[in-house]
Structure formats: C-alpha cells, structure tokens
Amino acid sequence: SQAKTKKNIETDIIGDKVGRIHLGKQDLNDMQTRKMKGLKRSRDDDTEGGPVVSDDEGEDFDADGGVEIKKIRV
Fold it and tell me: Name one GO cellular component term (predicted).
C-alpha cells in the first residue's frame, strides 16, 4: 500500500508550507460589521441612565482660542 498524499498542501518558493482551508457559505446578514466609535455609549451614560449634555455644544476651543486638553480616565 502506498502512502496517502496530502491534499491542498503546497510548498511555496521560499520553502514555507501553505495549505488551503475550505469553509461553508457564510451568511453575510448575521456577520458583525465594523463598530463605529461615535455610536458607542460612554461608561458615564450607562451609570446615569441618560446622555450627558454639555452647555458648550461640543466645542473643543476655549474663549481665548486655545485648544482644550482632555483628561484621560484611568
């Protein structure tokens, strides 16, 4: 009896072993797409129960024209 040949396994030019994996059809409707960071709720929103509304309407500039430095939560 002869040795069984390995299917879908090749060796490339460099000498690395490369194999092919066959998968079934994927349902694209159930797949997770890229998550957008802008739609993510912050931790403060989860604890308080509602969105945080500021009075400066989201502007990052001070009255003197300088850029406000945001603090990093630890």
Answer: nucleolus
R_g of the chain computed on alpha carbons? 27
pTM here is 0.27
Q: Is residue 18 scored above 90 in pLDDT?
A: yes
- Pull the structure tokens for residue 36: 């957008």
Distances (CA, A) of 21 to 3, 7, 13, 25, 39: 22, 11, 20, 13, 36
CA distances, 36 to each of 4, 40, 52 (Å): 49, 7, 19
* Cα within 13 Å of Cα(32), Cβ side: 2
